[in-house]
Write a structure and sequence with these properties.
Length: about 425
């Protein structure tokens, strides 16, 4: 059992001054087995993390998705250091803003113009505001998670603090169910400004779903927005648009474009994006912050090298097929489900006997941590992972399944679970992004 003395001490201090002791829900101690897991990280290198007590882990969370290349990458670090000597933020724009915008327009199919912001939610919110201004309509049709802003989170059960009038302007539809979107257009004719969705959910689109969404959206004179904050720069350089050959009117990017730096972007058709020049407000003090700009520019140059995404898919496939094989070997098909495309795949758990899915999740998480692997269910592959790390992951997963099998047989976690049970803020969906 590893030593987490300093982590535990820091956590006691943190919960007194920060809700959940963390700035992001899915980085909170409640997503791991408290007392038997690290809670604070000191540094990262490649695909490895070192906690404040000196314990070493292979990281498959990748900071909830932003790490596409690896921690402490020399090329990116050198670019940031060079810029740091020049300055961070200025009173006028820096040349790198133009360079990065031009690079995005070369890479992203829908990007005729680009606006940089900081978080994924900033980018999706900008896209919604521009779409409403462009169409003169108010209602938004949504599928997926799109950030913490009122228009998005107001459509969920976590809508306390959101005015009902705001929540009522967002309607949800079901991914891979085109009829559910048709029903919204029928119910709200000439009222829907935009259709926004995460284009890759679970195992991806079926039966030309994305193409059908585009056709239906345009038939009803609404704006189609792909929220590629998660999918962008993870599955392909050009995101889901490139992967499935469907080009939206607008797209939002974040996470993977900066390899951990705080940067995001809204991109789209010129006729929509130009509304910013007319006073449709999309403006932030740190939108042009130069360290993130040069870091992102360097990251994209690395990701566009031939073979980068072939490599990520290869390792992801090795991990996914390995998990599926283990689940079959231990006859756990009714308890553990593998979902997601290889670069971003994970496991979901089901109740069994008197054990709920969080009991199973806890046993799994504990075994992974004991074997030096950090995961919250979903797994992200970056360019610094190798087959060696995938093999360690699968060895850890096998131990987890042996323990899960034992817990099911005794209908209890007694004698198996050492730390506290995983207790996420948002129950049922263990695969979260924020």
């Amino acid at each position: 059992m590893s030593n987490y003395k300093k982590s535990d001490e820091l956590l006691k201090r943190a919960v007194k001054v920060t809700p959940l002791g963390a700035q992001t829900y899915s980085k909170s101690y409640r997503y791991y087995c408290q007392g038997d897991s690290p809670t604070f990280i000191d540094r990262g290198d490649g695909c490895y993390l070192y906690d404040v007590d000196g314990n070493k882990f292979i990281d498959f969370v990748c900071a909830l998705g932003p790490i596409t290349i690896g921690y402490n990458n020399k090329e990116i670090n050198d670019a940031i250091k060079e810029q740091l000597d020049k300055g961070i933020s200025f009173s006028l724009q820096a040349e790198v803003e133009v360079d990065l915008a031009e690079k995005i327009t070369e890479i992203i199919p829908c990007a005729e113009m680009v606006r940089f912001v900081k978080n994924g939610g900033d980018a999706t919110t900008a896209a919604i505001r521009l779409s409403r201004a462009f169409t003169g309509r108010d209602i938004v049709a949504l599928s997926g998670y799109h950030g913490m802003h009122d228009w998005s989170i107001g459509s969920t059960e976590n809508n306390r603090g959101i005015p009902a009038d705001v929540s009522n302007l967002t309607k949800t539809f079901e991914y891979n169910n085109i009829d559910s979107l048709k029903e919204l257009f029928d119910e709200y004719p000439n009222q829907i400004a935009a259709v926004i969705l995460e284009p890759i959910q679970a195992n991806g689109p079926k039966d030309d779903f994305l193409q059908k969404v585009k056709e239906l959206t345009h038939e009803n004179s609404a704006v189609l927005i792909f929220d590629e904050v998660v999918s962008g720069f993870r599955y392909a350089l050009g995101g889901a648009s490139e992967l499935y050959d469907v080009v939206p009117d607008m797209a939002a990017f974040g996470k993977g474009m900066g390899n951990g730096l705080a940067i995001s972007a809204v991109a789209g058709k010129k006729e929509i994006m130009e509304l910013i020049e007319e006073g449709i407000f999309v403006s932030t003090t740190f939108g042009g912050e130069a360290l993130s700009m040069v870091g992102s520019m360097t990251a994209l140059k690395i990701l566009e090298k031939p073979g980068a995404y072939d490599y990520i898919w290869k390792l992801g496939t090795m991990l996914k097929e390995g998990l599926e094989s283990l689940i079959e070997q231990y006859e756990l098909e009714d308890v553990i489900l593998v979902s997601g495309l290889p670069p971003h795949c994970g496991v979901e758990f089901e109740d069994v006997g008197s054990l709920d899915y969080l009991d199973i999740n806890s046993i799994y998480s504990q075994a992974m941590i004991h074997n030096g692997v950090i995961t919250v269910g979903i797994n992200n592959i970056n360019l610094s992972h190798t087959e060696k790390e995938i093999e360690v992951f699968l060895t850890a997963a096998e131990e987890a399944m042996v323990n899960i099998k034992k817990a099911i047989e005794q209908d209890s976690t007694e004698g198996i679970l050492i730390g506290k049970k995983v207790d996420p803020v948002f129950k049922r969906n263990i695969v979260e992004e924020n």
